Amino acid sequence: MRKQIAAANWKMNLTIDKAEALLNEILQADASLAENRQAIFAVPFPYLIKASELLNGKNNYSISAQNCSNKKSGAYTGEVSVEMLKSINISYCIVGHSERREYYGETNQILKEKVDLCLEQGITPIFCCGEALEIREKSGQNGFVRGQLEDSLFHLSADQLRSIIIAYEPIWAIGTGKTASTEQAQQMHEFIRSVLAEKWGADVAQDITILYGGSVKASNAKELFSCPDVDGGLVGGASLIAPEFVEIIKALKH
Ligand code: PGA
Fold first, then answer.
1. What are the residues whose beta carbons fall under 8 Å from the beta carbon of 7, sequence distance 6 or more?
2. Which atom of ligand 1 is nearest to the CA of 214?
3. In sequence order, what are the beta bridge partners of 5?
4. Pocket-forming residues, ligand 1, beta carbon under 6 Å
5. Which residues pair with residue 127 across a beta bridge?
6. DSSP line for 128-161
7. What gap in Å lies between CA 211 and CA 231, rounded to an integer?
């Protein structure tokens, strides 16, 4: 079975004391993850090292960055390079979250550059895609998401694609309390997998983990994760509450 993942996206929340307490509480609950299941914590940059230390090599728990620069190194004040992330042993990085696309003008081309830099350094990009409400209202979601995948990922080899996690996050469901129905989530995940299959073949497509994001919580995680093409979740708000996130980890498919 493909890897099943519960990824926490803390966004720009928590001070270091609260961050430490949250991570410790989740680790102590010990959702003991089996071989093919994983919990990932995308924490703010200043907490990456501390959070990695707290994991203390715990099996199947990892730390992720929430973003990286699309430049390799040099005079880019305020940016954080993929090489820097690698140098502190970070193995995942969210790329193309809709908040980055919307508030910081990240285009499909910029995200393509970030994906390439991550792969060059052996960091797994968690590549986000998803449509806004206006697009869904006109039933344009499939074409829109296909465009995001084509523009940022279609230049990759099959082997490179196998090192990527995709997160489908409909913008209208992020932080709104409005979750996609299981039918909507399954339909889009199946569509994404079919696009991957067209380009790289069915075997490759079957191996790619596709997460759902948008108001995932303990009360809806099990149902969403039970969809055949939903391989876990990228979780914002509910990942800031330890018992909620522990339940979400436990809801991963076995
Ligand atoms: P949410 O955020 O769970 O708060 O909707 C998800 C995300 O933005 O990754």
1. 39, 40, 41, 42, 64, 92, 126, 165, 167, 211, 232, 233, 234, 235
2. 5
3. 38, 232
4. 9, 169, 174-175, 213-216, 234-238
5. 95, 166
6. EE---HHHHHTT-HHHHHHHHHHHHHTTS-HHHH
7. 5
Residue 245 Cα to ligand 1 middle (Å): 12
Angle (nearest 5°) at CA 194 between 188 and 197: 145
Distance from residue 57's CA to the centre of ligand 1 (Å): 27
Enumerate the active-site residues: 97, 169
Cα–Cα distance for residue pair 189/150, rounded to 1 Å: 16
Q: pLDDT digits over 104-163, tens only?
A: 999 999 999 999 999 999 999 999 999 999 999 999 999 999 999 999 999 999 999 999
Q: How far is the CA of 42 from the centre of ligand 1 (A)?
A: 12
pLDDT of residue 106: 98
| Structural domains in the chain plus CATH codes | 4-250 (3.20.20.70)
Tokens representing 250 are 């436990």
Separation of alpha carbons 251 and 39, rounded Å: 12
